[in-house]
Amino acid sequence: MAITEYYVSVAGAGAHDGTTAGNAWTLSEAITANNALGAGGAAGRRYNIITGAYTARAATDTISVGGTATSPAIWRGYNSAIGDLDNGTRDAYGVLTTTNFPDIGYDSTYGLTPSAGHIVFMNLDIAPNRGSAGVNGTVNQTYQNCRIVNSNTGGSTVGIYVELGSRIVNCDVSSGASSGVSAISCDETVHIVDCRITSPGAAGIRSTGTAYNAIHNNTIYNRGTSGIDIQGNGGGKSITGNTIYACVDAINIISTASGHQVIVGNMITDNSGYGIDFNGGTSGTAMVAGNRFRDNVSGNTNGYADYVSATNSRNITTDTGGASTDYVDAATNKDFAIVYDSPGFEEGYSHRTHIGACGFELPTPASIGAAAWNDTTAPNRTLT
User: Fold this and answer.
1) Which one, out of 121, 140, 288, 345, has a CA that is 20 to 30 A from the CA of 303?
2) What whole-number distance in Å separates Cα of residue 90 and Cα of residue 154?
3) In 3D, which of 274, 174, 273, 283 has the Cα closest to residue 219?
4) Which residues, at least 6 apart from 1, have a Cβ–Cβ distance to it below 8 Å?
5) Which residues share a beta bridge with 329?
6) Of 89-103, 150-164, 288-302, 361-375, where does mean pLDDT reach its minimum?
7) b or e along 328-344 (b: 16 or more beta carbons within 10 Å of the residue's beta carbon)?
8) Do residues 281 and 255 touch, judged by C-beta distance below 8 A?
9) From CA 344, how far away is CA 290, in angstroms rounded?
10) Top-confidence residue, 314 or 214
11) Distance of alpha carbon 5 from alpha carbon 315, whole angstroms
């Protein structure tokens, strides 16, 4: 099915039928028109939302109609020409560049509820203020190049929740509460990739699913509890190439978890609890290899001792003193680019020139984690 373009602006324009930029819908009009289509009726529709302040929204926006398995509905921000924000760039510190993103903001207790599957959200700066999931998603959704910051301070606050088959890619996500549940909550078969996740309280990523999740190449820092909190009993998780800094336990896995946990190529440093806490579990198996551990106060791992010992290939624990051992400027600017002489550069397997998220190859094994290496003499520097 071909994509059909529709247009949205702050005030709307012309005939308010969405067919051109000169006849744009308001955001509320676009949602109303979308929801009138019936199940799957938005397949192939792309709602292009021009830059502007769609703020002080005094009700929850519910998007109840999506696309189909072969043709999603798409809600995409743009600046002056549709598609001009799609690259999803980051600044020198690794923060998502949201300049000219449409700013969709909500008054207290409100947020965004996409209740249908097969929807893609791109290039949006979403600011809910809801004491539960600020963005309360469902199955088969994609969030790409979005910033989601739930400013609510309630104890049940979540930045975004998604379910089966969804993807969160290259997003910055935060829940503003000093306590709460997590920045990202999900169930099974969810992919979370290339995201930057922070907040003073709660977990970074919390999975309650009973099947596989892929958690790859994310930067998770300054969490009030775990960086990654696995609370689902079944199914293995693939946790690879992440940088997890200044949390309590970097990775916390419920004791009854089954399946095979693959924890490979992560930067796990400066956490006040364990690097990886299996909580005495005996129901599953694990592979723990190629990780960089440093200054995890309670220890690098807890539990699954035989599996940790059996798979302990190229885990690096050299400690040469503090965060500056590994990162360009973790303390002040939260710049987690890996310095060239980090012990993490001892990492890598013989068939690879780097492990983790370098983004480009070097002549020798390079860094691990979710940020690129950095050296002032190097020709390039790549950040995720």
Assistant:
1) 345
2) 30
3) 174
4) 43, 44, 70, 71
5) 335
6) 361-375
7) bebeeebbbbbbbebbb
8) yes
9) 9
10) 214
11) 50
CA-closest candidate to residue 18, choices 103, 75, 59, 64? 75
- Residue 53: CB atoms within 10 A of its CB come to 11
* DSSP for residue 25: B
DSSP 110: B
Q: Please report, as a single letter, which amino acid is at residue 154.
A: G
Q: Which residue has the higher pLDDT, 141 or 378?
A: 141
Phi, psi of 104 (to 5 degrees): -105, 100
Query: Does residue 38 register a pLDDT over 60?
Result: yes
CA distance 148 to 143: 10
Contacts of residue 101, defined as CB under 8 A and 6 or more positions apart, other chains included, come to 51, 77, 85, 123, 124, 125, 147
Expressed in angstroms, the distance from the first to the final Cα of the chain is 32
Percent of the chain that is helix, strand, coil (3-state, to 5): 5, 35, 55
Q: In 36-167, which residue ranges form alpha helices assigned H by DSSP? A: none
Q: What is the pTM of this model?
A: 0.92
CB atoms within 10 A of CB 105: 17
Q: pLDDT, tens digit, for every residue of 316-344? A: 888 878 999 888 899 999 998 888 778 87
Q: Per-residue pLDDT tens for 165-212?
A: 999 999 999 997 777 899 999 999 999 999 999 977 889 999 998 888
